[in-house]
Every structure is written in C-alpha cells, then in structure tokens.
Design a protein that fits this description.
Immunoglobulin-like; alpha+beta; 10 helices; 4-stranded antiparallel sheet; 248 residues
C-alpha cells in the first residue's frame, strides 16, 4: 500500500498542461486542438490561446476550416516553454483539374479511334492483332525474330505445368475484420465530450439528430469510421458544419 502511495505523485506529474497560442493574423478563435494520443480535445479562445493536457511523445493536431491540418509531437523542450506559439498555414482553394482532349480508356480498339494517322487505325487493327481471329499468313524469318524456347522445345514429353499453375492460383489470406466506429449523436459525445454539439459545433439540441442525418452518408465520414480515425472524422465534421448551417 505504501508503495502505491509513493507512485501517485509520479503518475500525477507525468501529465502536464500545455499552454499555447495560434500566431496567425487571420481568424484564430475556434481552432480545434486535439491530443490524438489520449483523445483530449479543446478549442482556442478569441485571442487564439488554448490549454490542453499532454504527456511527452503525445501527438497534438490543430485544425481549422481556413487552415491546413498541422500536427506536432510533444517533447520535454516544448513543455518547458511558458507559451507554445503555433503558426498555421492558410488553406488555398485550388480549382479541380480541367482536362482538354480525350482520356485513354486502356481499350486499344476504343482509344485508336481518337488517334489521327494517315491510315485509319480501325483499318490497321486487323482481327488477328486484336485477338478476334487467327493469322493465316506466313511471316518471313529474319535475324531478330528467331526465338528458341529451350523449355518447350526440349524432349522428354513436354513441360510440367503444375508449378506454373500453382503460381497462378491465388492464395487465400486471413482476413482481419476491425469493427468500424459508430456514428450517432451519443457516439460523437463519447468521442469528443458532452458539450461537443452545443459547445464546439454550436448546434441546437433540436438540430442534433438532423445534423447526424445530414452527414452520416458523407464518403469521407464513412472512410474515417472504417479507419477508426477519430481526428480525421472530427476534421470532416467541422467542414460539414458550415454546409449544414447554409442548408438549414
């Protein structure tokens, strides 16, 4: 019992409170700060300041709608600082790539129709070339096309194809199924705290279930649930929060 009492001070001091601030000149209030190692979570105040419990080697992530995602690993040097200054990179909205012309499909017969040649490719591609028939002519030999297959031409009654067939048969691999995260109002409260909807998302209690229905089929949400990535899930929820506000 005495031994356990001696350990209590060590355990209590193993976790520290990290004081920090976001140094950007743009909007710094409401930046989400997430301890990915121990799932601790907070947001910055109007001055960009925050406090979050951490330990050495914890990974802390910073996320805002207008900023790129940033992560840091907590070191003893960072904990010694009175105030940790974080500068985030402003997110640049890029237009989707515009492709002019034809995209190759991988089907030679289809792609050949869009290639300009002196002789139409559709005529040049004979049935033999496309695998739709057999070539019945005679190909003249030259000093480059003569190939001797030592295996197939050797005597002794042919080739043992069993090893080759064995390589072509796919091997069954054990499938490990990891259950995906749940997505519901109660599940999100469990992941991110009891005031997640009212305090962080600023959503009225009467709109909580409507927000779940609005976001539950989002493709990125579904991928995050399968990956069991709570921070990726949180980041996407914050992005959809603005869209929900615009729609309702």
């Amino acid at each position: 019992m005495c031994f356990l009492l001696l350990l209590l001070p060590i355990v209590s001091f193993s976790q520290s409170v990290l004081d920090g601030e976001i140094a950007n000149s743009d909007e710094v209030e409401g930046i989400h700060v997430f301890n990915k190692t121990y799932h601790k979570y907070t947001v910055t105040d109007a001055n960009g300041k925050f406090k979050i419990p951490v330990r050495v080697n914890d990974t802390v992530a910073f996320s805002g709608i207008q900023y790129e995602l940033k992560t840091i690993v907590i070191t003893e040097e960072l904990l010694k600082k009175e105030m940790l200054t974080i500068r985030l990179t402003t997110k640049v909205n890029e237009l989707d790539e515009v492709y002019l012309g034809y995209r190759l499909t991988g089907n030679l017969s289809t792609d050949a129709k869009y290639i300009e040649t002196e002789i139409p490719m559709e005529i040049a591609l004979t049935n033999s070339f496309r695998g739709l028939g057999k070539f019945g002519g005679v190909i003249s030999s030259d000093n480059q096309s003569h190939v001797i297959n030592e295996v197939l031409s050797s005597g002794g009654g042919g080739v043992n194809l069993l090893p080759l067939i064995g390589l072509l048969i796919p091997k069954k691999k054990p499938v490990i199924v990891v259950p995906m995260l749940k997505y519901s109002r109660d599940a999100l409260v469990t992941y991110y705290g009891g005031d997640f909807f009212s305090g962080h998302l600023k959503i009225l209690k009467t709109d909580e279930e409507r927000f779940i229905q609005f976001t539950e089929l989002d493709s990125i949400i579904l991928v995050s649930l399968r990956r069991r990535n709570k921070f990726e899930l949180l980041h996407r929820i914050l992005q959809l929060r603005e869209q929900f506000e615009d729609n309702y």
